[in-house]
Amino acid sequence: MKKILVILGLVLILLGGILLATFPQMTSFFKETVYIAVVGPMSGPYKHEGASMLQGISLYLEQAREKGELGDKRIVLLIEDDQDDAQVAEKAAAKIAQENKALIVLGHSYSGPSIAAGKIYRKYEIPAITASATADNVTLGNEWYFRVIPANWFQAKFLTNYIKSTLKKDALSIIAVDNEYGDSLAKGITAAATELGINIVKEWKMAEQPTPDDVEQIAAEISARDDPGVLVLATNGTAADAKLLALLRDRGKIYTLIGDDSFGDEAFAKYFADYPKEQANPGYYSDGLYAVSPFMPAIADKEAFDFRQAFEKTYQSLPESWYIACYYDAMHVAVEAMKRAQLQGQGHIRSDRQKVRTALVNFYSLDTGLKGVTGYIYFNQDRDVTRPFAVGQ
Question: What is the reported pLDDT for 269?
Fold first, then answer.
């Protein structure tokens, strides 16, 4: 009888090995599931940014699985739509907290929703990583929020130094969107300009959802000035900004314009698609506009080139947004933090979140961080990355 049992056991082991070799996907049944929440505008006017977030995150996960870098973990994404609305974002964060499944949150896309949701992540001690929300207050005072791109204070200093040292200009005007993002960027530009001796001619506030009359009024006031200096756009690169640039161009004056990181996306140029002059002469309204970007593949290194090739192979197109690369890196950081955290697994979600946060805090230098597609990633005392932007025209 014992002999029969031994033979039967050997047969079962052999059969199991054959099944796993023949159907490798069956190994997922033997892996522990780790949930990661992804929150951003999956619907509404900015849904293209939510799609870009998911493209970058999914591409990294696909490559990590192929390379066996996930080990005994099976990562499942919990996707939530915040519609780029602070109140909706707060509800999405509350849902994540109540479900108590997500180990980490990736997102949100914009600063207002990130700040609103961040209060809940802090309360329930859930680590969050954004790769796009740059207002200073996203991470300031919230020890559970991390950011893999520079904050607005750094972007403001970079922009202002570029105006002074590269463009050789000593006067500027600011057009800022009237929200947390625009306020912090405008405040940083003002402080940096004062330090550098740059004259601030005027600051205009633009509503988050401006009417055509609002945009017309700002364009008229700019045109009425003999020299407003360099026009600095801290406005999130929306259709209203495209309308403003078109109005200024149609008035016949040429201005030096430089935009925040949102103007570095191809999505902004598409806002001009229906303008007749743009159709007749592509670039009519956007040519000459300077824009900063946390990632520009044309001047990046081998990792960026490989990323671009992998993206094109997977999606049969080139990446249109720096969001894709930055959220690719955010997922990379999350996976590396999980590895370093030595997670306990099922039944230990709270302590595992604390371990992940501690692992992220320990990305504090060039040696302890990691090399991402967008550059080296390690955090300062405010849990932000600080590195130079790229500038394009």
Answer: 84
